[in-house]
Amino acid sequence: MIELDTINARILRELSRNGRLANQELAERVGLSPSACLRRVQELERRGIIRGYRAVIDPAALGGGFTAYVAVGLSEHTQAAQKAFERAMSLSPHVRECHNVTGTVEFLLRVEVPDIAAYKRFHAETLGTLPQVTALTTYVVMDSSKDERA
Q1: Distance of CA 100 to the CA centre of its chain
Q2: pTM for the full model?
Q3: Where are the domains of the chain?
Q4: Does this chain's domain 6-46 share its CATH topology with 59-140?
Q5: What is the pLDDT of residues 60-83, one digit of tens each?
Q6: How far apart (Å, rounded) are the C-alpha atoms in residues 53 and 130?
Q7: What's the CA angle centered on 101, arms 99 and 105, to 5 degrees?
Q8: CA-CA to 58 of 20 to 30 Å: which in 5, 68, 97, 120?
Q9: 65 φψ region: left (φ > 0), alpha (ψ -120 to 50), beta (else)
Q10: Do the Cβ atoms of 118 and 25 come closer than 8 Å?
């Protein structure tokens, strides 16, 4: 585990709130000179602590907005079955996250589609065609009072 000093922790907090923050503004917020701040940000990037910067997109603004979490159980608990499932999920533009988890199922997906009809197609035509999938439980997102994904 990497130890962070208080200034690096503040840099990360500010950038997680606004990844487009100009270096000058970031430096002022964390109490550093712009050159010292830039060196620290570059070092955080070099060490892999900052892995990238993203735009947070509102699916509803693009005509979408149906989000579901899907718990997926596999018939085989082999590495080959897991890799095959992961490959299939990586090809689907509707699967925004795919997590291998512990518990009663092997995977948890976050799926974003325009509407329930599109989800039904994804459920039948993607998940329903994979031979290693034996159990599916869908949790439809009604609202998100807190979502800090970036």
Answers
A1: 13
A2: 0.76
A3: 6-46, 59-140
A4: no
A5: 787 778 999 999 999 998 999 999
A6: 33
A7: 110
A8: 120
A9: left
A10: no
